[in-house]
Design goal:
Elements: E1 4-6, H1 12-15, H2 23-34, H3 42-52, E2 55-60, H4 69-74, H5 76-84, E3 87-92, H6 100-109, E4 114-117, H7 123-132, E5 138-140, E6 152-157, H8 159-176, E7 181-186, H9 191-207, E8 212-217, H10 224-236, E9 241-245, H11 250-260, E10 263-268, H12 271-275, H13 280-283, E11 286-292, H14 294-306, E12 315-318, E13 325-327, H15 331-336, H16 339-353, H17 367-377
Parallel strand pairs: 1-12, 2-3, 2-4, 4-5, 5-6, 6-12, 7-8, 7-9, 9-10, 10-11
Antiparallel strand pairs: 11-13
Helix pairs in contact: 2-14, 5-14, 6-7, 8-9, 8-16, 10-11
């Protein structure tokens, strides 16, 4: 089994991403730092030519249009082309996991220098393809998979950190509203999603030790109708703030918040920013979002891969101190959170960055341990 290690970003680009800012701002800062010298040298010209010959494929194991995780991954394409000059193709593989292996094989046979993917969907297919094509390099931008083949590298965002911050926001808002129960809706009852739940619970308890957390699961990452149904039931029970970690199903939760006049916390990307132009009435219900800066992460790691500086066969952890995760602090956040509460969140962010806040590591957590945590806070 390959060992998980915490990775210290060396590029000023990634280090300068401000956790707690929207993905757009974080990406802009990374871009400004990664561009390097203003005057082109002979070495720059050589590197530009090498970049033009470097090919990347992005395999999306799901559907675009979620205004969340997969859309955030897709947004990395233009950034990679613009900042690194590489060619990038992508495949939207849909939700039928039985087709993922064939998709990976097809990409491998096209001899891309690097194949990117995101999430744990289709990991068996990824590993099978990696073992069949040992010379092909793969990078998963967001997963917890371990025991890796020697040609797969995994970036593992510290989901518990951004979820912890989401929990502090939810608890502070509930306190402001005079309530003692907050909600969580996950896509599926699986370890990757329960990492969000545990972080959320611990963040809420950091503010209000006796707080209760109502939780449910959609059973799918693409069922917006079921997501809305679960959310309406939870809002009707008296909950005013729900954190959704459910992919496209989470759009149903946001729609329920609008319909019931309640509030929601988004996930993976700044969902208020993503919705404000097309559906501003939905954006207005989103207090904040727990963010993964996937596009900036992709820019960072592809640059490293081009330089031969990626150690394959390991999973490395990226947290808020490296700018890999955070929360959105946009115009809606400023409107929906009091100045006093925003200041409290800022103080907690700094403590998390410095490692001064203890959080549970869910990677080795048993089902019984998880059930105990859920049951302890159940209303």
């Amino acid at each position: 089994m390959k060992k998980s290690i915490t990775f210290v970003l060396t590029l000023a680009a990634a280090a300068s991403l401000l956790a707690g800012c929207g993905a757009k701002k974080g990406t802009e800062e990374a871009t400004q730092n990664i561009t390097g010298q203003k005057e082109e040298t002979a070495q720059d010209q050589t590197e530009t030519q090498e970049a033009a010959n470097y090919s990347v494929a992005l395999m999306i194991p799901g559907n675009l249009g979620d205004k969340s995780f997969f859309d955030a991954a897709y947004n990395s394409i233009d950034l990679l082309k613009k900042e690194l000059g590489v060619s990038v193709d992508y495949v939207e593989a849909g939700t039928d996991s039985s087709k993922y292996y064939a998709t990976y094989v097809d990409l491998c046979e096209q001899s891309y220098d690097l194949i990117l993917t995101v999430s744990g969907e289709g990991n068996d297919a990824l590993v099978e393809a990696a073992e069949e094509f040992p010379e092909q390099k793969f990078i998963n931008l967001d997963d917890t998979m371990d025991d890796l083949p020697e040609n797969i590298y995994v970036m593992a965002p510290r989901n518990n950190e951004m979820s912890f911050l989401a929990g502090t926001v939810a608890a502070l808002k509930a306190e402001e509203l005079g309530e003692s129960v907050i909600g969580f809706i996950g896509g599926m009852d699986i370890p990757g999603i329960n990492e969000f739940l545990v972080g959320y619970i611990e963040g809420a308890q950091y503010i209000t030790p006796e707080i209760k957390v109502s939780s449910s699961y959609v059973g799918s990452f693409t069922d917006t109708a079921k997501g809305k149904e679960n959310a309406i039931l939870m809002y009707n029970s008296g909950v005013s703030v729900i954190f959704t970690a459910a992919g496209q199903s989470g759009l149903g939760v946001i729609d329920a918040a609008k319909e019931k006049g309640k509030l929601v916390i988004g996930v993976d990307s700044d969902q208020a920013e993503a919705l404000k132009d097309s559906q501003p009435e939905l954006a207005e219900t989103i207090i904040t979002s727990a963010i993964k800066n996937i596009d900036a992460d992709a820019l960072y790691i592809v640059d490293k891969a081009m330089k031969g500086e990626v150690t394959y066969g390991v999973r490395e952890l990226y947290g808020i101190d490296k700018g890999a995760v955070g929360i959105a602090q946009n115009e809606y956040y400023e409107k929906l959170m009091t100045k006093e509460n925003r200041d409290k969140v800022d103080e907690i962010i700094e403590k998390v960055k410095k490692g001064e806040v203890e959080m549970s590591d869910t990677s080795g957590m048993t089902t019984e341990e998880l059930e105990k945590i859920r049951d302890t806070v159940r209303p």
